[in-house]
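Sequence dictates fold. Below is an illustrative record:

_____
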Amino acid sequence: MKVGIKSILSVLVAVATVSIAPAAKAQPTVKFIGAGSSAMFQQFGIAAINDPTLAGANSHHYTIKGKCSGGVNCAQAFDNRTGPGGTVSDHQGGNLWVVWDNAVTEVWVYLSVDSVVGNRLFFAQPRATLQVSADVLNAGTAQNLISPKLFKYGEATGDPGCGGLSTCDDTQLPMAVYTAINNATLTTAMTDIRPEDALFATNRVLCTPNNGTTCLGYGPGPVGTSIIGDFSTSVATPVVYAISGTDPVTGNTIPAFNTYPVGAQPITMIVNRLPGGITAANVTHAQLELLFSGQRCNILGVNTNPLLREPLSGTMNTFEYTNMTNPTFSSGFSQETGVTTNPLNQACTVGGTRLRGIGTGDIATGMVDLTTGSGGFSQANAIGYMFFSYGNVSKLTSSSYGYLTLDSVDPLFGNPGYMPGTLPTCALPCPAAPNTTFKNVRNGSYRSWSMLRAVTDAQGANDANTKALVTSAQNVINLYVPDFIPYVAAGGDAGMQFYRSHFNQSGVTGNNGLPFSEPSTEAGGDVGGCITSKSINVLGAQENEPGGCSR
């Protein structure tokens, strides 16, 4: 067949065109999607950005929270289980950070919800997925939820709120990053109590009928009654799950997991200090029991309003079992003793009113509302609690607020900005010399603290990436904002020299896990366990219940 010159040239041009066309860009790899405790939200974001072995030089970040178009959560985790055990269709909204490398080949993500919720979302089978509103693709949606002053890299947005820094959030998510993370499966639970303790908390909440201590009456499942707060529209909904064996809803097998201890962080007792109000500088754990159980709310000299957390909160459970109920040693009073209303807003037996916040932010909001009357609560003299971080207390650093020592032991001694009784501020960054922070937690004398942890698959990429991020967070904790004591020696810091002894919990035999390796070989519960030196391995009958050493 005769072929003309013109036809040959056309073929050559077509071939040349195909040969020089750019290849389709591969979707970036999602390295980490953590969900859970707000206590690690900032620190893990700092680690992901600033560690050159993770996102790397010239990396980018984006943050968002709240509601987007249509009134839906801008970011949420979706637990969508259906099976013989019933149906779960639960959305948990939260604050989101997203970090990606300059070449847009790797992505790291954190959704701040709550510790117990983070555990449930991770252990659910099938595991929960991340859902992100398409609004994040719109320019100008970034919110700089973590101060740009703490980052080495970012984007100069021209936003006056960034102060001319070149380390701000990107104004929007790249399409490739959005596509990679939207509907992606969670890799890690971020928690301030062990998985066994988180499951115990859930089962305690779902247990019926309500007896105010061991059964709280918000069940039965698979989806229980939502616990409503007094200071916002937030709710906490208990949902069944398991950490081993099979999922109680679907019957699917639950994979083995690793637990990485991150660092120790104290619970701090917060008060407002209006003229004529609370003047006490100290509170005992016996007084806390009477206050937060609603028995005597005038024990600090004035009618006091205790601000409780929801019983699905890791913060609530740490406070509960390091200061209050203990079936072995105490009168058995719980924060849920006598609770008959939802939302709470319930008068104490003597003096004051108990109120409830859902999440740490709600407690800060409630403290402000009780000071200013802005939320309809015009009483003063509030007392609440939260895990200390500079971010958590940032709204409460004026002279209208303060913190109490507990049993005459100061939780914040040694921290940057420390002044007794005054919540410190951090002039970002506020680095600390190794081994100097939280001195009374470090020496074992402060009673109310817990170990922050990351929980992930027992092997594979999720395990490797979670371990890398944990290690980075420990190495840099004293360089930017020293919010916790690293669990192991890291970045020149000797690390935490004490642990809480473990007990039988949620069907798991207690094991302290010596030597203190990462991932940890520990097992069982430790919320409220005995404060014990790492050089000692203590297990005993007194620890076979939550709060075994809280007295």
Q: What stands out?
A: Residues 1-23, 540-548 have pLDDT under 50 and may be disordered. Residues 5-20 form the longest helix (16 residues).
